[in-house]
Specification:
With 132 residues, the protein is of the alpha+beta class. A 5-stranded mixed β-sheet has the order 3-1-2-4-5. A hairpin with a 5-residue loop joins strand 4 and strand 5.
Length: 132
């Protein structure tokens, strides 16, 4: 299996209004480093699994609507608990749509799996991954 991973970040605000989240129940900010990994079973004639430029652009396009936003006020997260895992799944879904729309060029159809990792800090991260 081949993979290309690109990185970006988002700065968001949100609340996690359930007792299990302790002090994070209230409104707070978070900066997530976001890694998106695109897996293929082979490489193309140019030796590429995925075009890094296209992957970087797609990730940036997916993250831009979230950056500097209060997730509690964004429709897709309204009335949901926007945990790291839930945010990772949302980003995955948006990137999967980019793959299906062939945003990665002719090699889009070779992408067979995506992993989205959100680094909460230097000691904690969460991710979502699935086959396409």
């Amino acid at each position: 299996m081949f993979a290309v991973e690109v990185r970006d970040h988002i700065m968001i605000a949100h609340s996690l209004p359930r007792p299990v989240f302790g002090p994070a129940q209230g409104m707070h900010g978070a900066t997530f480093i976001v890694d998106a990994t695109f897996f293929t079973r082979d490489v193309d004639d140019d030796g590429l699994a995925v075009d890094i430029g296209e992957a970087t652009t797609a990730l940036n396009d997916v993250l831009n609507p979230l950056n500097y936003q209060n997730l509690d006020e964004i429709e897709v997260f309204r009335n949901k608990i926007s945990t790291t895992e839930v945010i990772a799944k949302y980003i995955f879904d948006q990137l999967a749509t980019c793959v299906h729309e062939e945003r990665f060029g002719p090699g889009s159809s070779r992408i067979c799996k995506i992993r989205v990792t959100l680094h909460e800090s230097h000691v904690a991260k969460g991710w979502y991954e699935a086959d396409l």
